[in-house]
Amino acid sequence: MGVNRRDFIRNLALGSAATVLGCNGGGGVATDDAGCPLPQQPAAPPNLAYPGGAYFAQIASDLVAAGIGTPQVFVDMDRLDANIAEMASKIGAGRWRIVEKSLPSLDLLDYISQKSGSQKFLVLHLPFLAGILGRFPNADVLVGKTHLAVAIRSFFQSQPQSSWAGIARQVTFVVDSPKRLADLAQVASDLGLTLKLAVELDVGLRRSGVSTPADLAPVLTAFTQAQSVQFAGFLGYDGHVPYAPGSTLDAVQAAWQDATAAYQAFVDVLTTQFPPLASSSLVMNSGGSATYPMYTSGPVNDVAAGGGVLRPGDYPNWVIGALQPAIFVATPVFRVYPAPQLPFFTPDQSAAVLKGQQGVTIYGGGWPAYFTYPNGIQGAPFTFDPTDYPMVPNQGMVVAPASTVIGEDDWVFYHPRQSDALFQFEQILEVRGGRLQTATMAAYPRRY
After folding, report:
1. pLDDT digit string (tens) for 29-51?
2. Nearest-CA neighbor of 84 among 59, 104, 109, 56?
3. CA-CA distance, 376 to 410, in Å (whole number)?
4. Which of 94, 135, 392, 435 has its CA 20 to 30 A from that of 23?
5. Which domains does the chain have, with CATH numbers?
């Protein structure tokens, strides 16, 4: 059942306020040694190679000098360059398939493509496929999930008919059952095309794909009988691997080995039972930004990775410690309260909870991100729900230690949990050499 965040915050605050004055404990709320309630603490920023305070102070100064006074997302291009070089060195341009979902900007994708030498893309959302094909006329596109036949038919019909054959040559769609294959074979026949189709494999994520090697045989049999479709390979996403139970490198490596063994078992069905379908040109796709360095052996010849070039905050760091955070959100400070008051709390109750912290009202605050600068910034107690989402996301209250020097018109910086945060902004600012540049990149239009 979902959480109503405003009800959660209100009930928590009311229950806590009833016990705060005098700090006698009770009310079912966790307390400190004095009996004063402890607010739920937001997640601390991960232990990554963040720039120092002087860096963010300079960006703040540059934003003001540029006449900017609204929330912005920016990419550090030097760090981006270093991350691209690191990933290309581990994957190889010939094997790297850039995941566009994690990098929702054609300008940014173009930059990464040029720097990496790869024009292979993994596209998950069909409405964005036309933009990729338009920007990259030589792109090799793998669609990263199984889509409904009606959606694929509609996509083709939304494009000029003269482009259909070219799209069919450039794009590989995905199926996970004989029915899905038959549905797309019918679409291909109706449109007068031959569609390239890969088979999605479940190598441990348990959310989609052919479940077992035994289940693969009927799908491959359908390829031998179907008209207007061509078998193009496999896709087996390893998204579960970096979250292996145990939270150790050994556990992650064991999970990767299990996923690779599962992938190989599917490949064995292909090569032993359906040799006419087997070919060295087939795509064998897997990987991700949290696992790309692990693909030095095994059946995979096509490694998908995208957001790692920006190194957002939520990727487990087991094997990608060389990547540097390169994406940040900056938002201005509206007001500073030396003695802030919390909703539903009296001044005395607020003081007992905040213990001398100052309150800082910022523009926005609803981004899924970690507070990065100034040090010690966090969401105001009892105004954030369990997902760290503020009570009123268009203008949030955060708190900072009394020793933190911060004032009106200063800036607070976040590190997004996922690089998809770019999608929340229409313009991406660029930083190079620690200074804001005049060049910008456009994000995808905000539609679904």
Report:
1. 556 565 555 555 556 678 899 99
2. 109
3. 15
4. 392
5. 5-74+325-442 (2.40.37), 77-309 (3.20.20.10)
